[in-house]
Design goal:
This is Molybdate transport system ATP-binding protein. By secondary structure, the chain is an alpha+beta fold. The chain folds into 2 domains: 203 residues, Rossmann fold (3-Layer(aba) Sandwich); 122 residues, OB fold (Dihydrolipoamide Acetyltransferase, E2P) (Beta Barrel). The protein is built from 9 helices and 20 strands. The strands form 4 sheets. A 6-stranded mixed β-sheet has the order 5-6-7-1-8-9, with helices on both faces. Strands 12-11-10-14-20-13 form a 6-stranded mixed β-sheet. Helix 3 packs across helix 4.
Length: 342
Amino acid sequence: MVESRGIEAAFDVAAGAVLAVLGPNGAGKSTLLHVIAGLLRPDAGVVRVGERVLTDTGSGRHVPTHDRRVGLLLQDALLFPHLSVLANVAFPPGSSRPEHWLAEVDAADLAGRRPRQLSGGQAQRVALARALAAEPDVLLLDEPLAGLDVAAAAAMRTVLRRVLTRDGRSAVLVTHDVLDVLTLADRVLVLEDGKIAETGSTATVLATPRSRFGARFAGVNLVAGTAGDSGVLTTPWGQTWHGVAADDVVTGRPAVALFNPAAVAVYRDKPSGSPRNTVDVVVAELDSRGPVIRIRAEAQPDGGPGLAADVTPDSAAELRLTPGDRVHFAVKAQAVMLHPSA
């Protein structure tokens, strides 16, 4: 726990597993990594790797960063410009087999170069080799692919997937990219306002998120409220949503309604007919997403992300929408799934 920064979180990562930490900017993701790495001391709490206690505020124990056997890889590779690639990998205390680790990250041919002679993707592979050469028990990854182009990021994911799934090494990955989560993470933790909003397997969180950020990250709509009978959810501001309730939904308890933006129909005038869920919204933005146009409404009354609808370019042209327009979103009940709230 880091009280002065308003962060309180407790979690564990199994040996050989990768935990992805997600959340909006300022949620405390990097702070968590810095506490694990020993760069920050929490006001209260314990950091343990296996049987080794690295931080224990109760006893005053705080193992220095260089003795923790924790590797940290940042968005900036931070290579020493005056050293060769091989010397960079061999530099950290406890480093061993630098040639081996350069080969492991497909960078053996770069050993004699200086950092200024590397591309962004090459520099990140060298930085990863340097982190692994210290034989860490835990690898911390703070958006290491954020500054790379698409091809370099894809190549780096391949390398990471290979080295993270061996040797029983745990990893914590901070990212804003759903591809990183899908290809690298076993579990996901969503941090909002310094607290854990939800955690679960990657498949579960991306398929059925229970938090605002988790839903937006996964690209689905989320409406929070209270579960009623027969697949009904009522929001604090009086909207009623009809859907298909999961078996663990309990009447009278907090729940969320989830539905895909592709399931949302958009109308200028209130529709008649089959959709049981129709809400008035104000358009906040329109965004081109390949073959579809995403229409994003203004934030929900409880501060949740605005609902989104995906329409074809032809439909968007016919609607002729601009931000500020009031429209109707309609969703059939069969397309709405109700789950317990996180």
